[in-house]
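User: Good morning. I'm curious how guanosine-5'-monophosphate would be positioned relative to this chain. Could you predict the structure with it bound?
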Amino acid sequence: MANIFLKIIDGTIPCYKIAENDDYLAFLDINPLAEGHTLVIPKNETDYIFDMNDESFKGLFLFAKKVALAIKKVVPCKKIGISVLGLEVPHAHIHLVPINSVYDIDFKREKIKFTPEEFQKIASEISALV
Ligand code: 5GP
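Assistant: Good morning! Here's the predicted structure, ligand included:
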């Protein structure tokens, strides 16, 4: 069965899209730790990020860099933290999380709820700057 991120890539499951090219996609995490918490994924199916070939791996991080710079312009924060877990969804992805302290990127924290309108607004604002 296709993993949930493949369904997001093919549009079967909707997302709040931030940016996309032929190889990578960035979209808001549906259970965010912070406003603007974004996932960046390769379109090729690979579970474990360190199984990616060097070219795709570098490309993923370069794409994530562009997205992170755009998030930082929109969401007030000290830095954009990055984290790779992959314990829930078996498709390689990078979390980009606006942070002011280490607490902000603690995945044990309660997630923040946003309305669809709030998700869409932040996605549009970030997307415009990528
Ligand atoms: P991880 O695999 O890195 O442990 O966590 C997967 C992340 O994907 C979680 O932060 C979770 O909120 C997010 N996620 C899971 N399913 C969906 C989904 O259908 N849409 C979006 N936008 N995010 C999802």
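The chain has a mean pLDDT of 97. The chain is about 30% helix and 20% strand.
Let me know if you'd like a different ligand tried.
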